[in-house]
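yo

u said u wanted the structure for the complex thing, so here. seqs first:
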Amino acid sequence: MTISTLTADTALVTLAALPAGTESQLVIAPMLIVLVAAVGSLLLSRWPRARIGVSLAGGAAYAIAVAAIDWYVVLAPDAPGIATYQVGDLPAPFGITLVVDGLSAFMLTMVAVLGIASLIFSTRVLPEIDRRSYYFPLFHFLALGVTGAFLTGDLFNLFVWFEVMLMASYIFVAYYGGPQHTRAAFWYVALNLLASAVFLLAVGGIYATTGTLNMADLSRRLADPAAYGIEPAPVVGLFALLLSVFAIKAGLVPFQFWIPTAYRAAPPQITALLAGATKKVGIYAIIRLSFTVFADADVPVELAVPGTELAVSGDSPLVFVGSALFVMAAASILVGGVGAVGRESIEGVLAYSSIAQVGFIAIPVAIAATAPELRHLAVVAALVYALNHTLAKGLLFLAVGAVRSATGTSRLADLGGLAGRSPPLAIGFFVGALALVGIPPLSGFFGKFLVFDAAARVGSAPVVGLLLLGSLLTIAYMTRTWNRSFWGVQTDAVENAAVDGVQVGVVVALAVAIVAVGVGFEPVYEFADAAATAALDSEAYVEAVDPIEPGEFESEGGEH
Amino acid sequence: MTAVVLAAVVGALFALGTFLLLRRDLIRVVWGLAIISQAANVYLLSMGGIAAGTADSVPVLAGHGDHVPETADPLVQALVLTAIVIGFGMTAFALVLSYRVYEEHDTLDVSDLGDRE
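structre next:
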């Protein structure tokens, strides 16, 4: 148990080192904790109980570190709002910069809540033999990749953390090792390898165009290209490449095809993380790069819509991003919604639903990109909706995991009457379903409300109509899933089910969290508001990271 | 001249990689992915500028004032090194996975894989 005390010590040490100014060791704390937990659980492979202990301690320490970041950096009355950590004390843009601001903190909090739930759930799902496998180290490496992606301050490191996250997720998709799992994993790996190559192309192009990869430096240079002697026009195309990579991670149509097979293949508690956390990394990257980095780029964009007189024009890459996102999000809502209605298993329904729901998150991002006056409101809407999706979809996938480990199946045809077999599980699932639909006073209501509000203010009837249609589809497929699996006559599988108390407890705890977010929405809204402000305030971001000018470095030496 | 040759090489690698990626044989798909990631690496390396480095062409070197030795941009080399390592690991994993697919399905033909649920 020495490792777990070490983990706790790391948390205490970093907690004691409160942020001074905007530099803070607190920024790197979550990554260190999760790394120590990963290595610790890797070393303890012969002692399954100690390994689980270390994993849970690591998870708890991670949550404490994230809570400390939330409070000291963002929420406290005199909080700086943004804090940086220059790895190895090399000044930006030469060193590796880690940055935490409202947006990163908001995302980290979401992942921490879901991660803890999934971790506790994992300890009850794995049979004894599996606890000796590399499940727990991989779990922590997945968390490390996600955390790194949220905290990193430069594009190439974003690529690296994406890879760390993906490597763990590849193995989880192939985890059960059956025919459909290996097949799903192979296509998942192949697609992501291709996406990585595209990511590298975009990174290389941006470096050649602007001479930097540090996000703050990039933002500063793009805002005033003449002063730095760069020609920013190619950035629009390179940004389009990046957007396609992030859309693959987020699972937006037309890059959604890997989702249903991969989500069915991975263990349900990991699928909860894939839907709730890694998807959000794609969304986070789109928001961060669009609004913090590329928003100020001064590039005239003129896009003619083929076959019509219409044209989209503006003086920032965001115009292009917004238009592309609108199309992708609209297609996601339709494809996901229609696809979910006819699925045969609960996972199938939830996987397609996940495609549709990410469309609901992308619509406000698209609105924010195209309508500058609504930008703040729309980003808040996207964040609140993302929070709701993380909680609700995480809950639903964990509920499927509980159903599967109790009955051995998740096919709708083999289920029925689960509500009578385990009322708490049924109530948990019901709350998750209602949150997805958007019934007050759950978290989903405010998410949906803000998204509709943003769409209505744009005054675009087709967008509002699309959102309405998407919501109706949500009601349709969730009602169908509920009726077929939780109501009706108990099937043999359900009658003989052995429901695990801890698994149900985790589901119920997430349901309580959804209700709590809905009832006490005011502080959540304030947090999302701070996150949106941070995302849109690229000046503060540049100021905090403070990339020094080339040429300044020599005179300042290493004292910076 | 060097620029044209490099551009042609990158283009040819991408074409070859894409061609292989669209084959029915899984091993060729892995080959295609490996070649595409190498193409991306060559491209990344050439993004540092092909001419001998000066303060104007190599942003990182600008910090050293005017006394820039003739050198390539070190940053892209560091990036490419990282990318190669990651790509290498990924390719190895994809190969192992395709062997596992062969064990599970008794075939490496993509069109046969799709038929079995």
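Chain A touches chain B through 37 residues (CB under 8 Å). The first strand of chain A starts at residue 82 and ends at 87.
cya
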